[in-house]
Amino acid sequence: MMRRIPLLPTLVVLVAAAIMLRLGLWQLERLHQKEAMIAGYRAAQADRTLRPWPRGGAAPASYSRVALDCPAASATRAEAGRSGVGVAGWAHVASCPTPGGAPLRLVLGWSLRSEPVAWPGGPVRGTYVAREGGAVLFADPPLAGLQPSARPDPRDLPNNHLAYAVQWFAFAAVALVIYAIALRKRLRG
Questions:
Q1: Which pairs count as long-range contacts for 84-92, CB under 8 Å and 24+ apart, including other chains?
Q2: Beta strands 122-129 and 136-139: pairing type?
Q3: Which of 21, 123, 138, 185 is 20 to 30 Å from 89 at the Cα level?
Q4: Contact between residue 94 and residue 75 where contact means Cβ atoms under 8 Å apart
Q5: Higher model confidence: residue 74 or residue 176?
Q6: Can you give the pTM of this predicted structure?
Q7: What is the Cβ-side half-sphere exposure of residue 112, based on CA atoms within 13 angstroms?
Q8: Which of 122, 108, 120, 126 minimizes the C-alpha distance to 67?
Q9: DSSP for residue 60
Q10: d(CA 151, CA 61)
Q11: What distance in Å separates the CA atoms of residue 67 and residue 130, rounded to the nearest whole number?
């Protein structure tokens, strides 16, 4: 008696393997996007010239050095975090209105104490970083009495997309091999 290949389980396994393969390909696309982003950050950070904040809505390139006049800063607050060397402490943050743009988070410096610092506003220079949660300007030098905060570094950007792609491809291969073994046993009886 000839046995038939079961249609529904075969379709389920093939669809699942196709989804896993597509996820692996998507991770490879993200890998290339992230490498281009890191290269752009490194180029912007290598240029140490201080640029004035652009008048209008256009924000500077991420990781570029900018100078900004912040006449009306919000009250400073302390946010728990870690410094550039990994020591736990407090980042002192203010909100600054930018010309033609949304408020900018301004990291004035880092300390071991959570007491707010008094900063009436004024000129500030530092490294501008665009993030999903909003843009941040890391002040350099920090406000008097504060230490330099964790200045962002492109090497800190996680870029594990190749490993994720390999995992998705391996999952697809394992699913197909296990199904092929089970199907072979079923067809042989």
A1: 84/148, 84/149, 84/150, 84/151, 87/112, 90/114, 91/149, 91/150, 92/116, 92/117, 92/143, 92/146
A2: antiparallel
A3: 123
A4: yes
A5: 176
A6: 0.62
A7: 1
A8: 126
A9: P
A10: 16
A11: 15
Average pLDDT over residues 140-161: 75
Three-state SS letters, 109-164:
EEECCCCCCCCCCEEEEEEEECCCCCCEEEECCCCCCCECCCCCCHHHCCCCHHHH
User: How far is Cα 14 from Cα 119, in angstroms, rounded to an integer?
Assistant: 61
Strands lying side by side in the sheet with 104-111: 51-52, 65-70, 122-129, 136-139, 104-111, 88-96, 77-82
Place of tokens 């900063």: 119
What count of other Cβ atoms lies within 10 Å of the Cβ of residue 169?
17
- Residue identified by tokens 């009436």 is 120
Residues sharing a CB contact under 8 Å with residue 57, sequence separation 6 or more, in sequence order: 100, 101
Q: How many residues does the chain have?
A: 189
Q: Which residue has the tokens 């140490």?
A: 48
108 burial via Cβ count (<10 Å: 0-12, 13-18, 19+)? buried
Tens-place pLDDT, residues 50-88 = 888 777 666 777 788 888 888 766 778 888 877 666 678
Task: Report how far residue 143's alpha carbon sits from residue 107's, in angstroms, rounded to the nearest whole number.
Answer: 9
Q: Residue 136 burial by CB count (10 A; 0-12/13-18/19+): exposed, middle or buried?
A: buried
